[in-house]
Amino acid sequence: MRRYGKNTDEDDVRVRPSRRGTRPRTHRRPAHEDAQEGFVLTVDRGRITCLVDGVTVTAMKARELGRKSVVVGDRVAVVGDLSGRRDTLARVVRVEERSSALRRTADDDDPFERVVVANADQLAIVTALADPEPRPRLIDRCLVAAFDAGLDPLLILTKADLAAPGPLLQAYLPMGIRHVVTNHEELDEAALATVRGLLAGRVTAFVGHSGVGKTTLVNALVPERQRATGAVNAVTGRGRHTTVSALALPLPGPDAGWVIDTPGVRSFGLHHVDPSRVIHAFPDLEPGTAECPRACSHDEPDCALDAWVAAGHADPSRLDSLRRLLATRERREGD
Ligand SMILES: Nc1nc2c(ncn2[C@@H]2O[C@H](COP(=O)(O)OP(=O)(O)OP(=O)(O)O)[C@@H](O)[C@H]2O)c(=O)[nH]1
Ligand SMILES: [Zn+2]
User: Per the record, where are the segments of Basic residues compositional bias (predicted)?
Assistant: First the structure.
């Protein structure tokens, strides 16, 4: 075995790329084998905070990962100092395959897509019924992103003390989207239990426009939040209440699931979305696309879905819903 100087410890010998040039891969392997599994809680300017065997560890991406992104929700392999003590830094040497990736682009013309959250299985779209006014096109865009990523959408309508949910819900009932209506004055145990029931055992990414009451709701769901954000902020040095980076928070109780809080969004770019994946969210319509022309957008005159619906195979409101979602991919003023 080659020696790299008497001050290098085992770990350095195995993992740190040599300053003198490249080393055969085989020297790195053993370290990866004793790597521990970590769950990424947040990433802030290259600093990855992850949970390793119950300990919160700060890590950097190993150079060998190159440009591969590490995002909240990722399952990673971590080596190095896993004590979680102040000023220690571990290394993420591998990102496990993702079961899902919620993506967005800054806007529709932007081909650069970012994975916002990895491995979530549910997307909670938080919308206020008033103050700020609901923005149905933003909701629709979030729904398209959820369907594209294979996440189950959940509509959370807040501030029910200010306006009734009826009109907004009418637009979403034909889509069969699950929903819950909240009001901060009545965020008592009964109301929270309903929301917790919908989140149980799942990894739910929360998205919403700034000011909709997402923080109020998440804080009520995760009483530990103050402590959790305090701990993360000790690492990042950021302010206490601003959600700057997405952050994973454990819901209290065994297998209660995770909430992934994300910074308030103004828009949700959909450059990356493939319309053929959106149709999967409409299993009642999907068989009707068999007669569509090749690469049909399902929103054009030759689309076979009109005939399919006219023949009574599915409800016309379902086709309207699908087309409304597909149309959100076209950019409009205010998106
Ligand atoms: N009337 C009413 N106000 C609410 C309700 N929930 C939250 N608010 C208020 O709405 C404002 C925004 O709430 P936040 O929880 O900070 O909203 P947010 O979505 O986290 O906003 P950002 O932090 O900007 O992303 C605050 O003044 C809350 O007190 C509600 O159910 N009803
Ligand atoms: Zn079609």
Answer: 16-30
One domain for residues 165 and 235: yes
**Mean pLDDT, all residues of the chain:** 82
Same-domain status, 234 and 121: yes
| SS3 label, residue 93 | strand
C-alpha–C-alpha distance, residues 315 and 325, integer Å: 16
Q: Does the annotation place 209 within a ligand binding site? A: yes
The answer to whether residue 269 is domain-embedded is no
Q: What is the pLDDT of residue 1?
A: 41
Pick from 55, 72, 95: which residue ends a domain? 95
Q: Is residue 335 part of a domain?
A: no
Between 26-35, 74-83, 101-110, 138-147, the lowest mean confidence (pLDDT) is in: 26-35
Residue 1 in domain: no
Please name the residues in contact with 148: beta carbons below 8 A apart, sequence gap of 6 or more. Answer: 103, 270, 272, 273, 274, 277, 278
Torsion of CA 79, 61, 101, 170, to 10 degrees: 110
Does 298 appear as a known binding residue?
yes
Q: What integer pLDDT is reported at residue 273 of this predicted model?
A: 76
Please give the distance, rounded to the nearest whole angstrom, from the Cα atom of residue 206 to the centre of ligand 1. 14
Any atom of ligand 1 within 6 Å of the Cβ of 210: yes
The identity of residue 81, as a single letter, is D
Closest CA to 207 of 143, 113, 277: 143
Q: What is the domain range of residue 291?
A: 275-327
- Pair 86, 229 in one domain: no
Q: What is the residue with the minimal CA distance to atom 20 of ligand 1?
A: 215
- Minimum CA distance residue for ligand 1 atom 10: 213
Whether complex ipTM tops 0.90? yes
Torsion angle in degrees (nearest 10) through CA of 29, 35, 41, 47: -60
